[in-house]
Design brief:
Two copies of one chain form a homodimer. Chain A is built from five helices and three strands. Chain A is of the alpha+beta class and about 120 residues long. A three-stranded antiparallel beta sheet of chain A has the order 1-3-2.
Chain lengths: ~120, ~120
C-alpha cells in the first residue's frame, strides 16, 4: 500500500471508531461472529441502520462478512487492531523521545556551573 | 466521567484522528510544542484551516494550547494516547479470549472418542 492509500485507510479506520454503535458492534464481534440482527438487537437500532454502520466498519477494515444462504455473518478482522496498535506505538515512541530529550536538556542545564 | 460522557469523548478522540492533516500535526507536536504557523507551514495549509484542525484535536483531548502575548502555543496531551492505548488493549484482550475459547473448543472436539 502506498503512502496516500495508507493514509486514506487510516482515515476510514479512525472514522469507523468515532461512533458508539460501531464500537458496540466491535465489542460484540470480539466475542465471536454475528449476524446483522444479533448486532442490531442489543444496541436497540433498526436493521437498515445496523447495515450502514457495518458497511463503515467493513470499509475501516474492522470486519469481514460472508453470506451463507440468506444470512450474512460478520467476523472481526484482527488486522485493523494491528494497524491501530502500530499507529499508537509509533506516537508513544515519538512522545517518549520528546520527554527523553527534555530530561537530557534539563540535566545539562542543572550541570552547568552558575556564572 | 460517566459512561455517556466517556463515550462522547471517545467519539471526539477517534474523529480527531480521522484526518491526515490532524495526524500530521500530532506527529509534529510529538516532537515538541509548536505555534499555528509552525504546524500549518509543513502541511501546506492556510492558517484558518490549521486553527480549525487544532480545535478538533483540542476537543479530542490530544492537544492543549496556551496564549503568551500574541502567540498561541500548542502542546501534545499524552492522556489521549493513554485513553487510546487502554481502548486498543481491551479489544485485544477480548479478541484473544475469543481465540482461546476457539482453541479450547477445537481441543475438546479432537479429544472426543469417535463413535
Amino acid at each position: 500500500m502506498n503512502r496516500v492509500a495508507e493514509s486514506a485507510q487510516l482515515d476510514r479506520l479512525f472514522f469507523a471508531l468515532a461512533d458508539e454503535y460501531r464500537r458496540g458492534m466491535l465489542d460484540r464481534l470480539s466475542r465471536g461472529p454475528a449476524s446483522v440482527s444479533d448486532l442490531a438487537g442489543p444496541l436497540g437500532i433498526a436493521l437498515p441502520s445496523a447495515v450502514k454502520h457495518l458497511a463503515v466498519l467493513e470499509l475501516g477494515g474492522f470486519v469481514v462478512s460472508e453470506k451463507v444462504g440468506r444470512v450474512r455473518t460478520y467476523t472481526i478482522e484482527p488486522k485493523a487492531l494491528d494497524a491501530m496498535e502500530a499507529w499508537v506505538a509509533r506516537r508513544r515512541k515519538l512522545l517518549n523521545s520528546q520527554f527523553d530529550r527534555l530530561e537530557l536538556y534539563l540535566a545539562q542545564q542543572t550541570r552547568k556551573p552558575a556564572r
